[in-house]
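Limitations

Structures in this collection are predictions, not experimental determinations, and the ligand pose is part of the prediction. Treat each record accordingly. The example that follows, with 6-O-phosphono-beta-D-fructofuranose as the small molecule, is included so readers can see exactly what is and is not provided: the inputs are given verbatim, and the output is the predicted complex.
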Amino acid sequence: MADVRIGLLTGGGDCPGLNAVIRAVVRKGVDAHGDQLIGFRNGWRGVLDDVAEELSIESTRGILPRGGTILGSSRTNPRKRENGTALVRATLARHELDGLIAIGGEDTLGAAHQLLLEGINVIGVPKTIDNDLGATDQTFGFDTALQIATDAIDRLHTTAESHHRILVVEVMGRSAGWIALHSGLAGGADVILIPEIPFDIDEVCGLIRRRHGRGRYFSIVVVAEGAMPRQGTMRVTAGQEDEFGHPRLGGIGQQLEREIEQRTGFETRATVLGHVQRGGTPTAFDRVLATRLGLAAIDAAHDGSWGAMTALHATEIQLVPLAEAVAEVRRVPVGEYERYGVLFG
Ligand code: F6P
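Predicted complex:
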């Protein structure tokens, strides 16, 4: 097929590896297929408002190790804009595009899927530090965030030990506990709290007291931002919602700090890792995964395999229906978490 014109966008929370996808798409699109690539600024907002630039091999040089996204991102939901689908259709027509490659997580790809159902040609590429997308074994960005969180826990360990403190580390992940569970395991945390399993503050304090009883006068508690106490065991507050209806999370770390200190009498401090987890250069694993997903995405777009998402299945990159990827959030199975209970406290 000759002269295929494809639009590219990065939406939702940025994550390391986005630029590696853009580079791979452009390299293969231009060099191997002779395609023309247009980059839209700031996710779906750039498509709705038609803010775009031509992407070339020259303009995408040197971006492989760079975090963030050269295209910019936003949490714009096309369905929240009046005549959103019509605006998207008009932009595609104006640029004579055959379709779009949307690089995003649950929200960006959810919007892509809705547009697909309304006749827009889209291919998805799964990204998110949260690792919570279905139909793929892993999203790029997760490995980098995990490494950042693990490094932070290692550093907090030494200071916790010196000061005989309880250090609470709040990590991201939205409603999935993948970052908390894996960084907690890698960093040897004494308590790991994830959104999938409401926690009991008495049990948390019990684990910490048990360590003290065994002569370990410090503890590391890793808590996912979306973790919730069992009903009636602790008071929590909810944040404002974004365009996709997700509440802004964060704050459980500080609440735990207060509760643990009050209940145990041990000095407790909280660290919120926040956006540090999304920033900076991607790990080698994320660069390679992002590159492989990008190469598969441009092949799929060039072939007109619209409605697919590129996915990692074991060691292979495959195409899966976009519908499957956005059907439900992939969360930590309870049995998987329970397997590690022996390591806590
Ligand atoms: O989805 C990625 C993520 O970093 C979540 O872990 C977190 O809840 C959210 O984005 C934060 O979003 P924002 O940067 O818009 O505050």
